[in-house]
Design brief:
The protein has helices at about 30-40, 55-65, 90-105, 125-145, 170-180, 190-195, 200-205, 230-240, 260-270; strands at about 15-20, 45, 70, 75, 110-115, 150-155, 185-190, 210-215, 245-250. The protein has 9 helices and 9 strands. Helix 2 (about 55-65) links the parallel strand 2 and strand 3. About 40% of the residues lie in helices and about 15% in strands. With about 270 residues, it is an alpha/beta fold. The longest helix is centred in the middle third of the chain and has 22 residues, at about 125-145. Its EC number is 5.3.1.22. It comes from Oligosphaera ethanolica.
Amino acid sequence: MPVNYNVEKIGAGIQVKMALMTGWFGGLSHVEMVEQVAAYGFPAFENLGAGKWEDKEAVRAKCDELGISVGAIACGGTINGEGPVNPAYHDTFENEVRAAIVNAKALGTKTLLALTGAERSDMSMAQQMDNVVVASKRLAPMLEDAGMVMVYETLNIRKDHKGYALVYSKQAADMVRQVGSPAVKFLFDVYHQQISEGDVIRNLTDFKDEIGHFHFGDNPGRREPGTGELNYKNIFKAIAASGYTGCVSAEFSKSKDLEVEALLRILADCARW
């Protein structure tokens, strides 16, 4: 399927830097995907695995040409296994982040997504968060020198990721404050935080200084806005009002019979006021 350059610029005028999922543009190369995102008038894309793409430099060149931003890429840690909650993992974690910085520079992103690992039964949660702080302080100078921001993702344990260590916004914000570096923040995934704690707009506003990236999807179902209970126009307004200017990245499965252009119209409508 070739790039269609003659499409409507559906994303023109949106008021957050919305990053589209690359999987919505099947049949295109990575560079062609960037061209299609730009043709639709959207400002960014995200694929957490893009750091491993072999054509990173070509993608970056096309993004620079068309003014397209790149969202986060994965950098280290796991959901159900090891992560920086365990001091024995810290050397591995550093090596993972170091490699991700190289990939991020090649691709043209400044945002690295980290995972804390699963909650451990052999130490208190306070000690585990202290361990994450220690690991983060160790990496902060390297991240700062590279101009990167590493964001720890909070995930819900009620529905999707039972056993994960970092769940609540305040928990993440407290950890970020203890690190004390502009290069270490947390990722606020609206879908996950709605399940874990609700109060989405209050929390993203209260913790605006500690948030370094956003993901979104509706709840329940983790599909496009309008399929669940979240008022995304108001949420995006709150994100914009908080002063955040980075990517707000789609991370959901679109409804099966929904055409891509119809999906893009839904997203654009939520981000325009």
